[in-house]
Predict the structure.
Amino acid sequence: MVWGAISYHGQFYLLRIEGNINSNWHIREVLQPEVVSFLRGIPGAIYQQDNARPYVAKTVLDFCSAQHMLLLPRPSRYMSPIEHV
C-alpha cells in the first residue's frame, strides 16, 4: 500500500506501507511525524482523509482534535481529489 497527500502548497512524498495498518500505526507513523508538523506551517489548513477504518477510528479523531486539526468530513473515500492525481 502507498500513502500520499497533496495540498495547494505542494505534495508529500509517498510512504510505502508493508502489511496492514491500524489507527495506532496511522497516528504514530503518519499523523504525528508528518501531517501535524506540515499543517502547523499553514494557517487555517483543513485536513481531508477518506473513510478508511484506520482513519476514522475514535483514537485518530481524538488525536486530531487534541492537535487542533481542522478536518473536512468526507462521505466517500472515492470522492478524494488525490484519487484522480
Q: What stands out?
A: The longest helix spans residues 23-40. Helices lie at 23-40, 53-56, 58-66. The mean pLDDT is 83. Residues 52 and 60 are 11 Å apart (CA to CA).
